[in-house]
Write a structure and sequence with these properties.
This protein has 38 helices and 25 strands. It is α+β, with helices and mostly antiparallel strands. Among the domains are: 285 residues, Metalloenzyme, LuxS/M16 peptidase-like (Cytochrome Bc1 Complex, Chain A, domain 1, 2-Layer Sandwich), CATH 3.30.830.10; 146 residues, Metalloenzyme, LuxS/M16 peptidase-like (Cytochrome Bc1 Complex, Chain A, domain 1), CATH 3.30.830; 205 residues, 2-Layer Sandwich (Cytochrome Bc1 Complex, Chain A, domain 1), CATH 3.30.830.
């Protein structure tokens, strides 16, 4: 779904004279000149076309796909002060088409859209509620007439048909970016659609999309983290738009949209000299730049005046704020720093963030998290052009106050200011960042996102600084860190306490009366047909051959599976033990306990430091039926990393103090989970699938937790290598070399120990509708439909995939078009026929709607109608079919995923790549087969309705009309 970006992210920075920049070089190819940096591992080409459009291309031939981003340097910062949220509105509307697509008859549609725009303008200026209601009724009426000429989601249909994935967009403070992952053979189709998309966007089907934004706003009021984020920015930036203009907009402005203001925004900011096209993946850059120039050459440059704010006054003393809500308590301390254009500051701030918290050897990691002095602590950064935000956060353990958490966090910052840390940590930080850089090059999305961020920050003009960023981190000294921390990380902070309680200041956007509109799902514009007719060179699918693609052998009694890494110097090693939480529910606690234990040679802190210093890591994860050890990092340190882990798992010692602290933290974590609506819904869904005894509540009781001993957990850890196991290696070593090394490093018993009997969870069979309800203080309601179906049958896979793609698996699906686009009943909705992960298990129908509580009845009715009667659309079915074919043709399963795909197939009783059968069968399946499947497995069947909502907003009597109502306590759901 289209969304706006609210993530704390670590981003590269830009420019000051204090940091030397690698020199730009210039080259020409295919008739176009571009700039590049010789040392750039992405080998990115930076073009500027005649009209000012920036194009950045990075070639990566690992798979026949391309990540594309089209961005404009305008976000909520650029919103008019009297129309906040406008950039985000526009983002949604740029999926609605132009005068050439998205319309059955533009000549007849246009007068109606003009009338709607005029009505909104009047509505915007009217304050009398009664008059506003009359005007809105007119808007609704005329919108219904206009919708008869609209083709909903035609953009999504075109992208899906060409094999695009991840269709999305986001709006943030300084950017709006449109995202697509396309097959390499779809470049011409993609550029044809995108060039048309920005030529003359038409704001059709506006009032239902407006309702989707209302829903998005209301979801935010139910999200305590979102409220913390917005209050933090509002306080850190009392005058700057970073804090004074929320990305999604104020309730008052959302209620008073102006199509004219949105059009003015588009005309002002969506100009070529303020936009960039970024592509990373498998393509010929000479061909692509020529096509972009031809397709986007119509765009005309205009002067752009960027938002310039007056400097914020310094924060001279702590500013304290509180947020109330139902979620778990925490504390957040935020500092205002120089912006990303101050590269030297950005580099030092990045190093400081890692000195404090890098997940292994930072001050927070070793002094707070490893010693379990609180529930958890971390660091977040927001790097924007004018200012950055450096935030530290912590969660309280059992019996701990937020003020005590605050003091612990500030105590570590004081250590930073004094320089009481080992300067060698900086070298380790740089080595680990180089590891991340190598990993990042494998991913097209990472490449494209990094390049787009460089454009948003500084139009890519200082890419050399970004390329040298990690090396420049290595030049930072302890004195630099101390000086910076003493200057910027003092008493000049904003502190936010998230406390549990009722937020009486929540204002929701009320549901306007909306008449469902036509979606004309079978209609196709001439433009769509022209795009479909653009020739595309077929891409041949590549099937896995489990006998050829995987090297299979034995290490002692253990199976050994390997795939060689011929691309870089990274390795990943796995020990996959055939024992899990269903065999012993204490295993996950033992796995967690290991990170706090010392050995006869090293303390827990020293173990973390050693792994971090060699740019390697380990993780022990106990799943339901398997426990997996993962060791990864630089292959040059393979022996050292494996030896160190083997020492740790063999020689870890019981520590009663660490166990007592872990129990305290675990109890708080378990208590906090009961405050999370997403965790509650997980519990309801598991209860619906399996009954009162289910995988979700397969947990230790409080009494069992209290009785747990350190010797017992350490015994489980020491015993783990004795169970049947598969050793998996992906790295530069040959099979022979890897086996030889692991034979020396990894102890494998001559015979394996039998695992304890596994608890069995059987999926239930619903015989009548039932409602499982849990009360939660929220504006929204969350509803999941659950129905267990037939046993796994591999021959059903092709029709299952086609049904999901057609019915409810994406924005072009029947469910999304009906529930959101036509009826405006929810911001988020889907429905899928979920496949099991082992052959003895059943399929499940899983459907979802998240809506305002006062729309829940209508939303449930809308979904039930679709579950019972499948609408027919041959065009939508063909689009779904083409999407599946294109996805299979361009998918490349590589690296260690080859092995995990093989292991997954084995669990399903398969010995081959199942995609081959789907690909062969997909063209033979039509609506008849999809409808038969729907009728047999979904229509007129009993469902369990899992509902999380406020009992003050949802009537029990209404729930009883659905089926028998069972109100579940948190103890029943969670098992403790």
């Amino acid at each position: 779904m289209k969304t706006f970006k609210l993530l704390f992210v670590l981003l590269c920075a830009s420019t000051v004279s204090a940091v030397a920049q690698p020199a730009w070089k210039e080259a020409s190819s295919g008739g176009y000149t571009y700039k590049y940096i010789a040392s750039d591992p992405m080998k990115a080409r930076f073009y500027t076309l005649k009209n000012g459009l920036t194009v950045i291309l990075s070639v990566n031939n690992k798979e026949p796909r391309i990540q594309t981003l089209i961005g404009t340097r305008a976000g909520s910062n650029s919103d008019p002060a009297d129309h906040t949220g406008l950039a985000h509105y526009l983002e949604h509307l740029l999926f609605k088409g132009t005068d050439k697509y998205g319309s059955l008859n533009w000549a007849k549609e246009k007068p109606l859209l003009d009338k709607i725009e005029a009505l909104y303008d009047t509505y915007n200026r009217t304050t009398d509620n009664a008059k506003r209601a009359v005007i809105y009724h007119q808007i609704d009426s005329v919108s219904g007439l206009a919708a008869k000429f609209a083709i909903a989601n035609e953009y999504d249909k075109m992208m899906t048909a060409m094999g695009a994935q991840g269709t999305n967009a986001h709006t943030w403070v300084e950017e709006t970016v449109y995202e697509e992952d396309i097959p390499s053979n779809a470049v011409d189709k993609f550029l044809a659609v995108q060039a048309e998309r920005f030529r003359n966007p038409i704001f059709r089907i506006f009032h239902t999309e407006l309702e989707a934004v209302y829903e998005e706003k209301n979801r935010g009021t139910d999200n305590d983290g979102r409220k913390m984020y917005e209050l933090m920015l509002e306080t850190v930036f009392p005058t700057h738009n970073y804090g004074q203009q929320s990305t999604i907009g104020t309730v008052e402005h959302l209620k008073n949209p102006s199509l004219k203001a949105i059009r003015e925004f588009y005309n002002k900011w969506y100009v070529p000299n303020n936009m960039a096209i970024v592509m990373a993946g498998d393509f010929n850059p000479d061909y692509v730049i020529k096509q972009i120039d031809q397709k986007f050459g119509y765009m005309k440059a205009k002067p752009v005046t960027e938002y310039k704010a007056a400097p914020e006054k310094p924060i001279t003393a702590p500013i304290v704020k509180e947020v109330l809500g139902p979620d778990a308590e925490n504390v957040n301390i935020a500092y205002r720093l120089p912006g990303a254009l101050d590269t030297k500051s950005a580099i030092i701030a990045t190093v400081i963030s890692q000195v404090l918290s890098n997940g292994k050897a930072g001050l927070f990691d070793l002094n707070l998290n490893k010693q379990q002095k609180l529930l958890g602590a971390g660091v977040n950064q927001l790097n924007w052009k004018d200012y950055s935000v450096f935030a530290v956060s912590g969660r309280a353990k059992q019996g701990q106050t937020l003020e005590e958490v605050r003091d612990l966090l500030l105590g570590q910052i004081d250590i930073l200011r004094k320089g009481d840390f080992d300067e060698s940590l900086i070298k380790a930080i740089v080595n680990n960042f180089k590891l991340f850089e190598i990993e990042g090059l494998e991913n097209n999305n990472n490449r494209a996102t990094t390049l787009m961020d460089a454009y948003i920050k500084h139009k890519g003009n200082n890419w050399g600084y970004d390329v040298a960023f990690v090396d420049d981190m290595g030049k930072v000294t302890k004195k630099d860190i101390m000086d910076f921390a003493n200057k910027y990380l003092g008493n000049n902070y904003v502190i936010l306490y998230k406390r549990k309680g009722e937020d009486k200041n929540i204002v929701k956007v009320d549901k306007p009366p909306i008449t469902p509109v036509e979606v004309n799902r079978d209609a196709q514009s001439p433009f769509l047909l022209s795009v479909a007719g653009i020739p595309a060179t077929p891409v041949k699918p590549q099937w896995l051959d489990f006998d050829k693609d995987i090297q299979k052998d034995k290490i002692g009694a253990a199976d050994f599976l390997s795939v060689q890494n011929n691309d870089n110097g990274l390795f990943r090693l796995y020990y996959r033990f055939e024992v899990g939480n269903w065999n012993n529910k204490k295993l996950s606690l033992a796995a967690n306990y290991l990170s706090f234990l010392s050995t006869d040679k090293y303390t827990a802190q020293e173990i973390s430091r050693q792994f971090y210093n060699i740019a390697c890591s380990f993780n022990v994860a106990a799943g339901t039926e398997y426990t997996t050890v993962t060791i990864s990092g630089l292959n040059e340190n393979f022996d050292q990393a494996v030896s160190l882990f083997e020492h740790v798992i063999t020689n870890c010692k019981p520590d009663e103090i660490a166990l007592a602290a872990m129990k305290n933290r675990l109890k708080k974590t378990r208590s906090d989970a009961k405050l999370s609506k997403s965790s509650i819904m997980q519990g309801l869904v598991s209860y619906a699938m399996y009954g009162a005894k289910n995988p979700f509540n397969n947990a230790l009781s409080d009494a069992e937790l209290d009785a747990l001993t350190a010797d017992e957990l350490v015994g489980l850890l020491h015993d783990l290598p004795n169970y049947k196991q598969t050793v998996i290696y992906y790295g530069p070593k040959t099979k022979t070399a890897a086996i030889a090394d692991l034979t020396k490093l990894h102890n494998i018993p001559a015979t394996f120990k039998a695992a304890p009997a596994s608890v069995k969870f059987e999926k239930t069979s619903q015989s009548a509708n039932q409602v499982l309800f849990t009360d939660y203080d929220m504006v929204q309601s969350e509803v999941n439909w659950i129905r267990n179906a037939q046993l796994y049958n591999p021959s059903e896979t092709p029709v299952v995939e086609l049904f999901n793609a057609y019915f409810g698996g994406g924005m072009g699906s029947i469910v999304f078009q009906t529930i959101r686009e036509s009826k405006a009943l929810a911001y988020s909705t889907y429905a899928v026929y979920s496949s099991p992960n082992k052959k003895e298990d059943k399929y499940a129908v899983v459907a979802y709607v998240g809506s305002q509580a006062d729309k829940m009845k209508d939303a449930i009715g809308g979904m039930n109608e679709l579950l019972n009667v499948l609408p027919e659309s041959e065009k939508a079915l063909e689009t779904a079919r083409e999407s599946i074919k294109q996805g299979i043709e361009t998918e490349r399963i590589t690296q260690d995923q080859i092995i995990f795909n093989y292991l997954s197939a084995k669990r399903l009783g398969l010995d081959h790549d199942q995609r081959k059968e789907t690909y062969a069968a997909i063209n033979k399946l039509g609506f008849k087969e999809v409808k038969q499947f729907h009728d047999a497995n979904l229509a007129n069947k009993p469902y369990t309705y899992c509902i999380v909502a406020s009992d003050k907003k949802v009537s029990t009597d209404e729930l009883k009309k659905i089926g028998e109502v069972k109100k579940l306590s948190l103890e029943e759901l969670f098992g403790y």
